[in-house]
């Protein structure tokens, strides 16, 4: 073990033998260690040079005695410690230079620019087909490359256990058939939330690859997008998604073919106290759209009922929640966990 400070195993064994004997001559050490006398003499001289052995007097054949190891080796240990610390700092510096060079030399592997709706659509499909854990979406209105009904890869991924979390822009819910399409995804296992506005269009697969269009909307030309690999830029996009996910409103949607009829059961505050009321699936769907800020007319269109029916149902839910304003209902929806 002491070879790290320049003491060989043979020298260490000889020194330990001398510690046991307290004093000994060369011949006695050679006998005890079963070594040739010349070898023992050479090892004793090496130990004397390291300050671990000294003669009891000036006679060449005088008995040998050990010296305190902490005194003899303390300086050597300190120097080795300083050398190791210098080496550690150098290794850290070299590692940083290596990473810097790798990022600079392989920057093209971190960000790839693709152009064209078909190319973008194919890349989105390939990434979903290769997904293993989770896919994240920022879905804005007026898709650039792939509308919701075209994304059949999502259902295949959900079926094999991939998690989907999607945040939809409110205007997207106003498009014809959007709610029914969303309901199919939610029924298959997608977690859906809604916000008034989203900053960018975005897809992230397995926290390893992101696709982000470089222009917000079509300007008459082909759409282009950045395909971003593992990097601090990808970390920033992940943080952006999570920050929006925390404040987005949950969407609770059932099978779009099971839309309740206009005269289906409505909450009756006289039948049950407001504190114990829980909205049914159809009411939860209406509340999801209401809290997301979707206008009554659009809610009615999406649910297949009249605008007056939507207004009446909202009024009934306000009564069940014990409030008399729409902002109060939105607050109670969050407070009671109705969504």
From TrEMBL:
GO terms for molecular function: DNA binding. Residues 276-333 form the HTH luxR-type domain. Gene3D superfamilies: Winged helix-like DNA-binding domain superfamily/Winged helix DNA-binding domain. It comes from the Bacteria. GO terms for biological process: regulation of DNA-templated transcription. SMART domains: HTH_LUXR. InterPro entries: Sig_transdc_resp-reg_C-effctor (IPR016032), TrmB-like (IPR051797), Tscrpt_reg_LuxR_C (IPR000792), Tscrpt_reg_TrmB_N (IPR002831), WH-like_DNA-bd_sf (IPR036388), WH_DNA-bd_sf (IPR036390). This is TrmB family transcriptional regulator.
């Amino acid at each position: 073990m002491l070879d790290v400070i320049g003491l060989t195993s043979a020298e260490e064994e000889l020194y330990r033998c001398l510690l046991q004997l307290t004093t000994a001559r060369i011949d006695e050490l050679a006998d005890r260690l079963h070594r040739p006398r010349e070898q023992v003499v050479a090892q004793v001289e090496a130990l004397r040079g390291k300050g671990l052995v000294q003669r009891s007097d000036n006679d060449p054949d005088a008995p040998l005695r050990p010296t305190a190891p902490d005194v003899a080796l303390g300086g050597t240990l300190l120097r080795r410690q300083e050398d190791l610390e210098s080496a550690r700092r150098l290794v850290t510096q070299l590692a940083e230079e290596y990473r810097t060079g790798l990022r600079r030399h392989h920057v093209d592997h971190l960000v790839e620019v693709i152009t064209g709706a078909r190319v973008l659509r194919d890349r989105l499909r390939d990434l979903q087909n290769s997904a293993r854990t989770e896919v994240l979406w920022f879905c804005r209105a007026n898709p650039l490359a792939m509308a919701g009904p075209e994304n059949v890869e999502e259902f295949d991924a959900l079926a094999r256990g991939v998690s989907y979390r999607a945040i939809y822009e409110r205007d997207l819910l106003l498009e014809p058939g959007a709610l029914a399409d969303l309901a199919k995804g939610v029924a298959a296992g997608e977690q859906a939330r809604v916000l008034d506005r989203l900053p960018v269009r975005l897809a992230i697969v397995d926290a390893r690859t992101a696709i982000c269009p470089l222009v917000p909307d079509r300007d008459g030309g082909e759409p282009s997008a950045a395909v971003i690999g593992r990097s601090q830029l990808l970390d920033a996009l992940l943080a952006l998604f999570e920050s929006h996910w925390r404040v987005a409103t949950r969407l609770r949607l059932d099978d779009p073919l099971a839309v309740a009829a206009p005269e289906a059961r409505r909450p009756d505050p006289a039948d049950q106290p407001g504190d114990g009321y829980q909205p049914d699936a159809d009411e939860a769907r209406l509340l999801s759209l209401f809290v997301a800020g979707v206008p009554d007319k659009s809610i009615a269109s999406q649910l297949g009922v009249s605008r007056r029916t939507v207004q009446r149902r909202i009024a009934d839910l306000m009564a069940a929640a014990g409030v008399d304003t729409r902002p109060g209902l939105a607050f109670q929806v969050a407070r009671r966990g109705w969504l």
